[in-house]
Design goal:
Length: about 180
């Protein structure tokens, strides 16, 4: 299944796939790009339990107009004994009726020693984060850049290491509330 999804993400002509988690808040998509093992899924689970909507796991799927579409697959939360899957419906996912505009990009990698002090991230830096996690940027650089540039135009973006997800989830939702 993972190989099929990777093939789809690499070869899609209709969308740009970014390795990320996506949540919905106040009618907008909030994308959390990052490498595997950076704490994205754990953060999204904590945010969903505090009232954000689960929108997509593994990939943020951008159409060429810059809107974000869901990618509803089970979320994998890694644990010492391997990992556990949480279904999209268990996190409150129900099939959305439409794609969402991008509200912003959140880059909050887990660091157990971090002091929570997020900074505003410029749109150009946010774009670089999306490009760095784009699956097909080497196969279709112009289309990828055009699509993600369009998506990022009017967004609110933050960056900074974070401690435990439960500790910061409420603060992140405060940011999202202020941005909408």
């Amino acid at each position: 299944e993972r190989q099929f999804h990777l093939y789809l993400a690499s070869h899609s002509r209709d969308a740009v796939f970014v390795h990320a988690e996506v949540l919905e808040f106040a009618g907008k998509a909030w994308v959390i790009p990052g490498k595997s093992y950076s704490g994205k899924s754990t953060l999204v689970e904590a945010l969903v339990r505090k009232q954000a909507g689960f929108y997509s796991d593994e990939y943020a799927v951008f159409d060429h107009s810059g809107l974000v579409h869901p990618f509803p697959r089970p979320m994998t939360l890694r644990q010492a004994d391997g990992g556990r899957n949480i279904s999209a419906t268990e996190l409150g996912w129900s099939p959305p009726s439409r794609a969402l505009p991008l509200g912003g990009v959140l880059v909050f990698p887990f660091d157990p020693k971090a002091v929570w002090s997020p900074r505003v991230m410029s749109p150009s830096y946010a774009l670089m984060q999306l490009l760095a996690n784009s699956v097909a940027v080497r196969l279709a650089p112009e289309s990828t850049l055009r699509t993600l540039s369009l998506a990022i135009e009017e967004t609110s973006n933050w960056v900074g290491p974070r401690p435990d997800a439960e500790e910061v989830a409420g603060h992140i939702l405060d940011f999202l509330s202020a941005a909408t």
